[in-house]
Write a sequence for this structure.
C-alpha cells in the first residue's frame, strides 16, 4: 500500500532497469539511459525485466530491446512511458523529494486501493521468478 519511487541517473543496467519497473514512479536525469549489457555477455536479462518490460511497451518492442541490447536514453524512455519525468541534474534529489511529497499528500486510503487494483495481477511475478529459477537449476 506504500508508494514506491525510483530516482535514476547515469547508466542503469539490466537488473536495476527491471527492478525500477516494479516501482510506482520513476524519475530520471536527462543523462540517464537504460543499458542492456546482458546481450554482450551471453546472459539472460535479470531483475524481472522480461516480465515487466512487455507490460509497459508491448511484446514486440520489448523483445527488440531484450534481444538486441539497444540503449534507451531518457527522452526515449519518457516517450515509451517507462519513466514519469525527466528532472534537472542540478537539483535532482530535491526535485524527486518534492514530487514524492506531492504524491504522498493524497488520501492514503485511496492510494492504497488504487494501487491494489492496478497491481491486481502482480502475483504472477512469483510464478515468473519460480519459472526462471527452474530454467537455471
Amino acid at each position: 500500500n506504500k508508494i514506491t519511487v525510483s530516482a535514476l541517473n547515469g547508466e542503469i543496467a539490466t537488473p536495476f532497469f527491471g527492478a525500477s519497473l516494479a516501482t510506482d514512479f520513476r524519475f530520471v536525469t536527462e543523462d540517464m539511459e537504460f543499458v542492456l549489457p546482458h546481450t554482450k555477455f551471453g546472459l539472460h536479462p535479470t531483475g524481472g525485466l522480461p516480465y515487466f518490460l512487455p507490460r509497459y511497451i508491448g511484446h514486440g518492442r520489448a523483445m527488440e530491446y531484450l534481444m538486441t541490447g539497444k540503449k534507451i536514453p531518457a527522452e526515449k524512455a519518457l516517450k515509451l512511458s517507462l519513466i514519469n519525468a525527466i528532472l534537472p541534474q542540478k537539483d535532482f534529489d530535491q526535485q524527486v523529494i518534492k514530487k514524492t511529497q506531492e504524491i504522498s499528500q493524497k488520501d492514503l486510503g485511496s492510494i492504497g486501493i488504487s494501487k491494489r487494483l492496478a497491481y491486481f495481477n502482480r502475483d504472477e511475478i512469483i510464478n515468473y521468478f519460480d519459472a526462471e529459477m527452474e530454467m537455471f537449476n
Notes: The mean pLDDT is 90.
